[in-house]
Amino acid sequence: MGLINLSSPHHHSLSQTSRLMALVLLATLPGLAAQSYFYGYGTLINLVWASFLALGFEALILYLRGRPIMPYLTDGSALVTAFLLALALPPFSPWWLTLVAVSFSIIFAKHLYGGLGSNPFNPAMVGYALCLISFPVAMTQWAGTEMTMTFGQQWQWFWLESVTGGIDAYTSATALDIMRHTKGLTLSEVASSNPQLALGLTASMWVNIAYLLGGLVLLGFKVFTWHAPVAMLASLGFCAGLFHMGEPDLYPSASQHLLTGATMLSAFFIVTDPVSGATSRKGKLVFGIGVGILVFIIRSYGSYPDAFAFAILLMNLSAPLIDTYTKPKAYGHQSKAPRSQGRP
Amino acid sequence: MTKLWDFHGGVHPIQNKDQSNQLPINTMPLPKQLILPLSQHIGNQAKAIVAPGEYVLKGQLIASAQGFISANIHAPSSGFIDAIEERTLPHQSALTGECIVINTDGKDQWTKLHPVSNPETVSKQDLLHIIQAAGVTGMGGAGFPSVVKLQSKAKIDTLVINGAECEPYITSDDRLMREYAEQIIAGISIAQLLLDQPRCLIGIEDNKPEAIIALNEALSSHTNDKASIEVCVIPTKYPSGGEKQLLEILTGLQVPHGGIPADIGIVCQNVGTVKAIYDAVVLGQPLITRITTVTGKAAKNAGNYEVLIGTQTGDLLDFAQVDMSKTSRLVMGGPMMGFTIQDTQTPLIKSSNCLLAAEDLELAPIADHHSCIRCGLCEVACPAQLLPQQLFWFAKAEEFEKAQDHNLSDCIECGACAWVCPSQIPLVQYYRFAKGRLKDLASEAHIAELSRVRFENREQRLIDEKLAKEEKRKNRATAAAAAQAAKRAANPSEQDPIAAALARVNAKKQEQEQEPKKQVDSAPKTHEQIYKELKTAAAITRTKLNKTNKALANAVAKDHELAQGLQTTVDELTIKAADAQGKLQAYEAKLGLDPEKEKALLTDVAKANALVRKLEKALATSLDPQGVETQLVIARVSQKTSANALAKHQTNLPSTLLPEQEQ
Amino acid sequence: MQTLYLAIIILALLAIVFGAILGFAAIRFKVDGDPIVDQIDNLLPQTQCGQCGHPGCKPYAQAIADGEAINRCPPGGETTIKALADLLGVEAIALDAEHGTEAIRTIAYIREDECIGCTKCIQACPVDAILGAAKQMHTVIVAECTGCDLCLEPCPVDCIDMLPVETTPLSWHWQQPKQLIATSTAPHNHGAPSHD
Ligand code: SF4
Ligand code: SF4
Ligand code: SF4
Ligand code: SF4
Q1: Mapping DSSP to helix (H, G, I), strand (E, B) and coil, where does residue C81 land?
Q2: What ipTM was assigned to the predicted interfaces of this complex?
Q3: CA-based nearest distance C13→chain B, Å
Q4: 10-residue averages of pLDDT along chain C (196 residues)
Q5: What's the pTM?
Q6: Chain C residues with CB within 8 Å of chain A CB
Q7: Class for domain C104-166, per CATH?
Q8: A35 with A262: CB under 8 angstroms?
Q9: B276 vs B278: CA distance, rounded Å
Q10: Position A330 in a domain
């Protein structure tokens, strides 16, 4: 047998991109379950549809770019994008909304920038933001939690946006929406005036806890380091807590911020996206803090239902800058003074 | 207990050490042939001081160090020098280099040795000299000559002995520490003596409990009141055995960028090296053996072997019963930093600590690599605290300067980053590529600078010469004019000066025309001279013809109007060249020379030589040595015949080339 | 209306102030570099081969400073063009094939037994890297030869060879790994030297 010539190392941990991605996908399951439990089959249908689309577009683009299809398709990155989109989009989104989001994510945000690893923005967030700007109404259709549609009804809604039997007004705003759009009233007033809010808040809380769980599993498997998510949650919590202390009736409390909307989903599944985030650990801290602050600002003063897409895209934009200023000191560059200077 | 620190990053590959550390060190029988590369380390290559055919004794100096960073080489066994020639080097490039080849005679007879039983009685200078003369080099990594470190000018307060052996699979230091603990401690004492008694810390990973016990036992019976020696058990983590990392673990200090450990008062030596220092001083033996691990699932008798430096890898692999059909990747060194070799004739050198013949699925699969997903795992693993993913990016984009800005030169090529990379990118190869290109660029810049200076000097010189000539001409002109004027003033009836000048020129011309003839008449030429002149004339016309032909082709291609003229020139030149060639051949015939035949004979010899070499190589690896052997015998015969034919042809020449009178 | 005027005035004032600051900074922190010709010359490979159509690198540097195209130096190739483009703040363009193509670095060797000692090569060598005297055998100082080819042409007996620079274990280094994902099933050696 001929002997080959290779560069060291000849040993490998056998970790694989596809395995990392598979772990990420698995870790979304608790969140997915919670979301389905509270909001019905919408998310599931969406997920299957988005995955199908993502793989299809990925294969198509790879073919057009003249790249080998199977190795890239099996790395799982397209599926992760699909999952994130499906989970972030409202459960009541119709088929075309997902189609627009997924196609834009895969084609424009990912492949036009050179494919996996070269995209400056998180593809899922780009797709999400596009829909948010273009179809604000469709993007705010969250089911009221007391409403449960059968699978058939959900299926019908998904394709036709109407349901036989006339249940069409059953969408309601998210807890976040309500919280924001009722400024002027104090939160306690809102809560008592709107029984839905209380329910919505509970649902939202459980979904968030489920994502937190999945995230902790990933952290345990060392899929990412703690820096970005912890920094983000801490800064968001800090800002919220601070303002809540000042004006408790105007600003929701830290725990409400942390457990509503897509907080945990983004903290553990989107902010940790390595491709578009900052590189070094110090950089990741800065990145996370930035996202946290931006989320708080946009949630409190912006007019969109949730702030993540924009906060993350903005921070993606500044990631190269963060990288430049947080380059870690290499071995031997520390300022520890040498003890003797007697070099001949 | 000394406080331990941690270094950044690191990984935990599967150790696989028990494949080879179970059995005691086994001495390999004397091989038939030893190959000793003259360059076994960074720095200057040693210079051979023996000639082919010479008989050498075991331990005799055969190549001497050249300069400060260079090491002596000794004959590892007695025998005859077979050749000093180019052989494959144990180097990733698999290029060849000068080697001394010794055919051992089986007697293994020592030269006279000068052991020093009590090193304390000898002066420092003499000790250093003994160690230097014994050719002791670092047995762990780059094979740096040890004396250089032992005569540090800086004040050394800590001597670190590296017994970490963090690379998976390798166990040579482990076994060495178990079996030669006392010698190692004695070697350390010598090193301490040389460095003015610093404290000594021996770093050993906690996966070698037997070695730790052995060393501690040896320590308990050792008495040195001047300086302490301590065994420090460190956690198993790759690459804790890297010099810089080990220093950080044991002292908490980092070697400053671009510096050496002596800058922070530390000297680091490998356990094998201190054992070699002991051998050199107390036994008087030069460094001619070492312990090498043979391991991997393809090795039936995996274990540690005491081998002579210069042993061919093939011999050792055979002795350890390695099934070469089971492996396609033979690694010299460990799986993390070792390099692959392809030629089993590659010799083992002073720093060859391991031969890894792993079965194909044992090591990293040869996988395609994906794009970097910037997961940051490499950054977490990097012991040099670099940003491997950025370095990779720059190396790939060939932005070498940016890579340098990100401290590429601090990368120790440990491979931790590539080991964890989920995209299985051969990161280290990218870094090596970038480092190599940076080196190339630096040397190119250096050459360019030199050339620029030389070019400018030359320009200046040409200008100066021209000016000087001009000046001279002017001076002469004015002087001549003055002389003329003076003459005319003295003798106005003189004829026109221009006519006179013309007449002078004419006279000179005539003279010149006659001159060549005179020469021919006066000095009759030898055959050799005439032959050479004819040869030159033929070469010149041939060259002219070639050049004009080229110009013609060019002109024709571009449809140039000069083509016509060139065509005539070519025609003329063709005739001339043929003529010159004809004359040359005629003369050769007259002399009895036959260049055609000589050329043919030369090719024959070269062909035969090549065939023999090829067969010899094939013999080593062939499955059918018998068949190859017969072919080889036949080839050798034809080699000899063709050589003889050539020699005969050439010996015929001088007689006809003797200088003789023309006609 | 009044606010509009006010805005215009304020903006104008701001512009003046910043302009003044910038102008001051430009003078105060001016870096005196080499003259541009020297900077360009430093980027050229100094092979002095004349393929660019100038009798050496310095003259070409001068010509570039005077506005000539930056893509005429074959020995420098892409790298030099890129460096020049960076320096001059212009677009990097492809090498002008009129002036030759990028080739591997070579060094001249004189077949010494054929040399007739005519000294023509010495006169041609732009960096004085050839040693010899009339009617004596000539030789090339390898360390100083730039591989410019210029001595080849004048040699009347064609006894100069341009040979590629040899790789030694010291100068050898790994090449860049071949490709990200192999599309073929050929053995992957990631750019290592092959031995067949
Ligand atoms: S480990 Fe590999 S994939 Fe991850 S950042 Fe480093 S180079 Fe990229
Ligand atoms: S090979 Fe270099 S970059 Fe990679 S982990 Fe080791 S020191 Fe860091
Ligand atoms: S072409 Fe030759 S002479 Fe002109 S700049 Fe390049 S190296 Fe110098
Ligand atoms: S030009 Fe050719 S023949 Fe003349 S000196 Fe140079 S090498 Fe020799």
Answers
A1: helix
A2: 0.80
A3: 41
A4: 80 87 75 76 87 88 88 87 87 83 84 85 87 80 85 87 84 78 38 39
A5: 0.78
A6: 174, 181, 183, 187, 189-190, 192-195
A7: alpha beta
A8: no
A9: 5
A10: no
